[in-house]
Design goal:
This protein has 2 helices and 9 strands. It is an alpha+beta fold. Strand 8 and strand 9 form a beta hairpin. It is globular, with a radius of gyration of 13 Å. The mean pLDDT is 84.
């Protein structure tokens, strides 16, 4: 069985390093809720749990817990700065639909 994959873009890695020099990691979790059934939760974190998988790029780390990992296999984490504002976004090939804000999705 292959390990679940998550890609961190250079833009996301750069932003993680800018905002989290003392934390060093961005944690992404998938929780029930949001307007489409599931939603992403983003937070800065310096503590790695035993069930976390770490994805690294250019010195930045993204942590995903084991429960969330199955929902994010094959996803890409990006950082965008557009007219709607600045935010981390997950492009998830497993999502059948998502809301306009980009943080809620359904499978």
């Amino acid at each position: 069985m292959t390990e679940p994959a998550l890609t961190v873009t250079p833009a996301a890695a750069k932003r993680i390093l800018e905002i989290a020099p003392q934390h060093g990691a961005l944690r992404i979790a998938v929780n029930g809720g949001g307007c489409s059934g599931f939603q992403y939760e983003f937070k800065l974190d310096s503590d790695r749990a035993d069930d976390d998988t770490a994805f690294e790029r250019d010195g930045a780390t993204v942590l995903v817990d084991s429960m969330s990992l199955g929902f994010m296999d094959g996803a890409t984490v990006d950082f965008v700065d557009d007219l709607m504002g600045q935010s981390f976004r997950v492009q998830n090939p497993q999502a059948k639909s998502s809301c306009g804000c980009g943080t809620s999705f359904s499978l």
